[in-house]
């Protein structure tokens, strides 16, 4: 089993309106085994140690400028002010903010 097995299915815009999602503040398109190429260090907002992908996603949701995140297997979460192209890498997981 891979580290990101529970996140292999990305959500779609239709998922935003499914029952049970009323309380969610943010939704993300997920990209398993990828990192988010933000276009340079100028778009990196912050990075910090977290315990899970969910924690990283929550940090992005709580940061007003965050448009994407990357969670690395070493448990470092990078928040980005842009959302460019996901780049393949088996040691990472990324997401682009939809709302």
Automatic annotation (TrEMBL):
Source species, domain of life: Eukaryota
Organism the protein comes from: Phytophthora infestans (strain T30-4)
Any Pfam family matching the protein: PAN_1
Protein name in UniProt: Apple domain-containing protein
Record-linked InterPro entries: Apple, Pan_app
Keyword Cell inner membrane: no
UniProt keyword annotations, A-Z: Disulfide bond, Repeat
Transmembrane annotation, as ranges: none
């Amino acid at each position: 089993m891979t580290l990101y097995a529970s996140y292999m299915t990305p959500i779609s815009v239709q998922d935003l309106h499914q029952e049970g999602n009323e309380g969610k503040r943010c939704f993300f398109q997920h990209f398993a085994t990828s990192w988010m190429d933000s276009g340079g260090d100028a778009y990196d907002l912050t990075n910090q140690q977290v315990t899970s992908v969910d924690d990283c996603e929550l940090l992005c949701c709580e940061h007003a400028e965050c448009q994407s995140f990357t969670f690395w297997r070493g448990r470092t979460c990078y928040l980005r002010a842009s959302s460019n192209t996901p780049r393949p890498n088996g040691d990472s997981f990324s997401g682009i903010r939809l709302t």
